[in-house]
Amino acid sequence: ELFLKGVRRPWGMVLITGPTGSGKSTTLHTALKFIKSPRKNIVTVEDPVEYRQPGIQQVQVKSEIGFDFARSLRSILRQDPDIIMVGEIRDQETAQIAVKAALTGHLVLSTLHTNDAVSTLTRLVNIGVEPFLVASAVNVAAAQRLVRKICKDCKEPYRPSADELALFAPDPGPEVLYRGRGCKSCRNVGYAGRMALYEVFAIDSEVRRMLIDGADGDKIQRYAMGSGMVTLRKCGFRQAARGLTSLEEVLTVAADLD
Question: What CATH number should be reported for the domain holding residue 203?
C-alpha cells in the first residue's frame, strides 16, 4: 500500500533495490501497468527492454555507441514525459538527472543495488547527489527478494524448534511452521513457484531532516524500524508463518538483514 501510494503521486522518485534476479524489473513494470492511462506520457529507459508494454515508449540503452542511461534520460526529458522509468541508476550523472527530473514535475521510477530500502538514500548521497536533493526527491524506497513457495501438494506442518522460535524475537513466534516434503508435482524439491518479499520505506519529514543533517544509514534505519517499517526479514517470517514459504528460504535471502 505504501509503495502504491508512492507511484500514484504526480512527481518524485520511487526506488526499488535488490540483487540481480530479485524481480526489480517485474515490479517496476507492474507499477507502470497500475498507473498507465491514455492521458499519461510514459517513457522507459532500459538495458535491455525486458517487457514490452503497449502505450508506453520504451528506449533501449546502447552503451557501445555512447547512448547510455544518462544520455538516454536527457533525450527523453525533451519529450515532456509525465512518468519516467530508468532501468537502473548506476552512476552520478544518471542519478543527478533522475533526481532533477523528479523535482521538476516528473514521477521517476528506478532501481539501485543496495542491501535494504534505507540504503538507497545513502547510496544516492555516496555517488554524489546532494543530501538535500535526495531528501526532496525520494518519496518511497523499497527492497525486495524472491523466495521459493512451498509446494501446495506436499506441504506439511511441523513444530518449530526453540532455535527457530528465537529468530522471531521479540515476537512470540508461530506454533506451527511448514515445509515441503517433496512429491511428483514439485519433482521432490518441496517448492513450486516463487514469491516476493518486500521492505517498503516511505520518506517522511523527519527522514528528510535527518538526511539534510548528514545522518548515516544506521541512524535512519533505527528510525525507520522504530516507526514501524517491516523489514525484509520480518516480512519473510510472516510469510513463513502463513505457510507460503519456509523459514529456511527466508534465511537464505535475509539472514543478515535487520
Answer: 3.40.50.300
Q: Is residue 104 part of a domain?
A: yes
DSSP state of 167: T
pLDDT attached to residue 123: 96
Give domain status of residue 127, yes or no. Answer: yes
Check if the beta carbon of residue 196 is closer than 8 Å to that of residue 236: no
Q: How far apart (Å, rounded) are the C-alpha atoms in residues 225 and 221?
A: 6
pLDDT digits (tens, 9 = 90+) for 63-117: 877 788 899 999 999 888 999 999 999 999 999 999 999 999 999 999 999 999 9
- The grid coordinates of residue 150 equal 512451498
Per-residue pLDDT tens for 199-211? Answer: 999 999 999 999 9
Nearest to 203 by CA among 227, 167, 181: 227
State which residues form the domain around 107: 2-146+196-245
CA distance to 11, 37, 207, 228, per residue, from 223 (Å): 25, 36, 8, 9
How far is residue 189's CA from residue 256's CA, in Å, rounded to a whole number? Answer: 25
The helix/strand/coil state of 152 is coil
Q: Has residue 227 been placed in a domain?
A: yes
Cα angle: 22, vertex 146, 86; to 5 degrees: 25
Measured from the Cβ of residue 15, the count of other Cβ atoms closer than 10 Å reads 29
pTM: 0.90
Interatomic CA distance for residues 147 and 236, integer angstroms: 9
Amino acid, res. 151: C
What dihedral angle (degrees, nearest 10) is formed by the CA atoms of 251, 252, 255, 257? -110
Q: How many domains does the chain have?
A: 1
First to last CA, the chain: 21
Evaluate whether residue 225 is within a structural domain.
yes
Contact 137, 115 (CB under 8 A): no
